[in-house]
Amino acid sequence: MVPIGMEEIVKAPKALLHDHLDGGLRPATIVELAAEVDHTLPTTDPGELGRWFVESADSGSLERYLETFDHTVAVMQTAASLHRVAAECALDLAADGVVYAEVRFAPEQHLERGLTLDGVVEAVLAGFAAGTEQAAAKGQQIRVGTLLTAMRHAARSQEIAELAVRYRDTGVVGFDIAGAEAGFPPTRHLDAFEYLQRENFHFTIHAGEAFGLPSIWQAIQWCGADRLGHGVRLVDDITPGGDPVLGRLSAYVRDKRIPLELCPSSNVQTGAAPSIAQHPIGLLRDLRFRVTVNTDNRLMSGTSMSREMALLVDAFGYGWSELQWFTINAMKSAFIPFDERLSIINEVIKPAYAKLA
Ligand SMILES: [Zn+2]
């Protein structure tokens, strides 16, 4: 088998379900936007700034990791800056060969300069639409769906859930909660999840990244999550060996085909996995969980969707059939309507991989 090169991976269509808007800015854009609002950055050299983000996220210190978001969020407080960041996000993903992306952000973090929650959402949706159009003009097709995130330490989840439902016909396809897992179980936001279920809406929950099985169990069995953001600690419920044994929870997740939004580089940076080569994605794929590959925070991890795929190719020897499997898994798990998912699978993904293989 000829090893797959980065250039070919970029050309292959990919689907991405877990990507944070405030974790994917271009360093040069941060420098420009920071100058406009007099925000002080660690450095104003875009190259150095990009390295600062990755090093801070790599440092193993949660404080330094979180500090990186202080800078990105600080420059995303106006309609114009949100529009620009969202447009560039769509363009960058399209240039990387991503044909379908769900990008998430927390509207409540962008109110420091007088925007309303609705104003934030509208600016981002308009930005995604503009970026998608500009990409199409270059011959790069991408469909971007938006997820609205509520912060798990805050108390606005019901309000954000209602906001998501309000924009469901204009680009918002789902809801999420994010933030520190320990001490902030998803059951704190049960009202929001029950509301979303009554509205026949979709949601994912960040669970099983820093924290273990109880967080995953609550997300699924108490909150009714459609997907798991990370879910990497699910391996704690699998006894390894020649014939791995699944516990009740991991068996349930596999039986129900609950998608796992795994983010290899990010999981290594936060200590959820020791290395790419030892990342549970290898075992979870062998056991045929509904595994998807994601970027999480492209800026902080210095990564892209293609790079995540390339890392897996290097670490596990995956070929086109595995990359196609991850891509179709993601597309099957997307929050857009079934017929739209099917058309991307049958008209875009399968024909492209048939040619590559
Ligand atoms: Zn995340």
TrEMBL record:
<dbReference type="GO" id="GO:0046103">
    <property type="term" value="P:inosine biosynthetic process"/>
</dbReference>
<keyword id="KW-0862">Zinc</keyword>
<dbReference type="InterPro" id="IPR032466">
    <property type="entry name" value="Metal_Hydrolase"/>
</dbReference>
<keyword id="KW-0479">Metal-binding</keyword>
<comment type="function">
    <text>Catalyzes the hydrolytic deamination of adenosine and 2-deoxyadenosine.</text>
</comment>
<dbReference type="GO" id="GO:0005829">
    <property type="term" value="C:cytosol"/>
</dbReference>
<feature type="binding site">
    <location>
        <position position="179"/>
    </location>
    <ligand>
        <name>substrate</name>
    </ligand>
</feature>
<dbReference type="Pfam" id="PF00962">
    <property type="entry name" value="A_deaminase"/>
</dbReference>
<feature type="binding site">
    <location>
        <position position="206"/>
    </location>
    <ligand>
        <name>Zn(2+)</name>
    </ligand>
</feature>
<feature type="binding site">
    <location>
        <position position="18"/>
    </location>
    <ligand>
        <name>Zn(2+)</name>
    </ligand>
</feature>
<dbReference type="GO" id="GO:0004000">
    <property type="term" value="F:adenosine deaminase activity"/>
</dbReference>
<protein>
    <recommendedName>
        <fullName>Adenosine deaminase</fullName>
        <ecNumber>3.5.4.4</ecNumber>
    </recommendedName>
</protein>
<dbReference type="GO" id="GO:0009168">
    <property type="term" value="P:purine ribonucleoside monophosphate biosynthetic process"/>
</dbReference>
<dbReference type="GO" id="GO:0008270">
    <property type="term" value="F:zinc ion binding"/>
</dbReference>
<comment type="similarity">
    <text>Belongs to the metallo-dependent hydrolases superfamily. Adenosine and AMP deaminases family. Adenosine deaminase subfamily.</text>
</comment>
<dbReference type="InterPro" id="IPR028893">
    <property type="entry name" value="A_deaminase"/>
</dbReference>
<feature type="binding site">
    <location>
        <position position="20"/>
    </location>
    <ligand>
        <name>substrate</name>
    </ligand>
</feature>
<feature type="domain" description="Adenosine deaminase">
    <location>
        <begin position="13"/>
        <end position="350"/>
    </location>
</feature>
<feature type="binding site">
    <location>
        <position position="20"/>
    </location>
    <ligand>
        <name>Zn(2+)</name>
    </ligand>
</feature>
<feature type="binding site">
    <location>
        <position position="296"/>
    </location>
    <ligand>
        <name>Zn(2+)</name>
    </ligand>
</feature>
<dbReference type="InterPro" id="IPR001365">
    <property type="entry name" value="A_deaminase_dom"/>
</dbReference>
<dbReference type="GO" id="GO:0006154">
    <property type="term" value="P:adenosine catabolic process"/>
</dbReference>
<dbReference type="InterPro" id="IPR006330">
    <property type="entry name" value="Ado/ade_deaminase"/>
</dbReference>
<feature type="binding site">
    <location>
        <position position="22"/>
    </location>
    <ligand>
        <name>substrate</name>
    </ligand>
</feature>
<feature type="active site" description="Proton donor">
    <location>
        <position position="209"/>
    </location>
</feature>
<keyword id="KW-0546">Nucleotide metabolism</keyword>
<dbReference type="GO" id="GO:0046936">
    <property type="term" value="F:2'-deoxyadenosine deaminase activity"/>
</dbReference>
<dbReference type="GO" id="GO:0009117">
    <property type="term" value="P:nucleotide metabolic process"/>
</dbReference>
<keyword id="KW-0378">Hydrolase</keyword>
<dbReference type="GO" id="GO:0043103">
    <property type="term" value="P:hypoxanthine salvage"/>
</dbReference>
<feature type="site" description="Important for catalytic activity">
    <location>
        <position position="230"/>
    </location>
</feature>
